[in-house]
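Our collaborator T.R. sent over the components below with a one-line note: 'Predict the complex.' Nothing else. No constraints on interfaces, no templates requested, no preferences about which chain binds where. So this is a plain run: every listed entity goes in together, and whatever single assembly comes back becomes the starting point for the next discussion.
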Amino acid sequence: MKPQDYPRSVLNMISALKRMPGVGTRGAERLALWFLQQGRNEANQLAAALTTAVETVGNCPECGFFAEKGCRCTACDDPARDSSLLCVVEQATDVLPIERSGSFRGLYHCLGGKISPLDGVMPEDLAIEKLIDRVKAHPGCEVILAVGSDVEGEATALYLAEQLGKLPCRCTRLAQGMPAGAGLGHADAITVMRALEGRRGL
Amino acid sequence: MKPQDYPRSVLNMISALKRMPGVGTRGAERLALWFLQQGRNEANQLAAALTTAVETVGNCPECGFFAEKGCRCTACDDPARDSSLLCVVEQATDVLPIERSGSFRGLYHCLGGKISPLDGVMPEDLAIEKLIDRVKAHPGCEVILAVGSDVEGEATALYLAEQLGKLPCRCTRLAQGMPAGAGLGHADAITVMRALEGRRGL
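Returned assembly:
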């Protein structure tokens, strides 16, 4: 007697769903059964959205953010943006949190990672040469280093500050301090130290 | 100045992913970015698996379990299965837990729900007529009612027992009692009551 199992195509769907991050065996099975119960429209709609996205989305040749293939992103194409402000981020996914803060009106530059010799990521693997070209094209601009404040982020910021120091630009770094809405009780020692170092007059 | 956002096709992908149960806005965005970073293969593979599954999977005309469209399921097609044992479950998704227990060698019958007048589900909405036909075709068979032990499940079991009482078959119900590996400390009062009622000699 063969044990009853899902048809082959359902098992394929389960294993494809399971490859997504944060989806385990039971979660994938639950999603697969949901798709079968919803009927073909739901599954076909997601399938089309996935295919279209990966086929049509590439990176902006200027800043590296997501853009329709072969096109510049909406920020690089927007003449109302201040091209004398350049915000350097690690990944394209770091752009949205800054945009959503509503307090930046300049352009972006995505490095594509951070310097991390242990992971084999060296400065030449990042879009640093392109950054230097862009800074040279806008003399007198401000470069805001919005890389992370972990060890690799700090190393990347230091390296960039050194490289950019030779160019006619001003180099700044995101402030470090207490996050909004947080009490001292939940802050770690390094955050408190940096908040004290960076204190401002009222 | 327009705020920078993901390209339209990425936003479409995010909203399609968000429709899946248990996936919120941030989860959908995280999955979408993961697909973009993985390259086109990963997304196309999931898209193909989804489309193939919903296009090719239907229900077994005999028992209602998932099967390739127009075909009977592997259990109904297996001559080694005992056709004098019929396990009645609410949903097609209830078959796998029983199969995985490795202790059932008969056939299944999926009702497609449970009697619940409050939700507008009446006996005629379930595959009960088909069940009666199958029982008539196998006189002397045993019908195991493996429906849930909630109010609607109990109502369904009672209704089926009454209908099947007129036919030449034996009607049984899954045992109720303590789940394997659980201590008394975690059991609710009704489970303990039913475990006491159903106690067995050693």
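Summary for T.R.: The longest helix of chain A spans residues 40-56.
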